[in-house]
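Entry 14: structure prediction run for Uracil-DNA glycosylase. Input pasted below.
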Amino acid sequence: MDVNIHESWKSLLQDEFDTSYFKELTTFVRNEYETHRCFPRGKEIFNAFEHCHFDDTKVVIIGQDPYHGVGQAHGLCFSVNDGIAHPPSLINIFKELEKDLGIPYPKSGNLLRWADQGVLLLNATLTVRAHHAGSHQNKGWETFTDSVIKTISDNKENVVFLLWGSYAKNKSKLISSKNHHILTSGHPSPLSANRGYWFGNKHFSKTNFLLEQVALKPVAW
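Run finished. Output tokens:
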């Protein structure tokens, strides 16, 4: 696994790359990609960091696992490649966006446009074996991405963290609520959304309001 991560992150995370757990993780991932079909493509594993540089990061959305279907995952949580059918959680994200800000439902599920504006779309686990959800969990990725969250919390101010669902909410312990904004809600998955835990959270308008309060440019969702 080549750690082709943007320079702005490299110096902050170098200590992680030098640890024994990360070296073991690298060996595991390399072996998985050589012996099985895995997603996202190798060069896209760190795509979230490539498009959202550390200095530009102003919003963090935390997912759990990459999509495991063909052509879906490309290194950003909840996002799919252009031309790919929108998964259920993404459909509900776009429905809430439409309701909250009056933005027409987008044709493309590719969220690179968010990442390029400073939204870090971070999955807790960055790789997965095709058609095997959670197959790369508990191999070291979570330790790495927890460190990313803590690094942002410790080295920046006024970042808006969007924690959707219980898994993401558990990451709040890594974030200084004194220096940052934490917005929580149910997960956008149909199971949670249909029970009333997702729709109406207005996280997109609330995020932009919080950014404007500290003279940061709102996100063009």
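Notes: Residues 20-35 form the longest helix (16 residues). Will compare against the previous run tomorrow.
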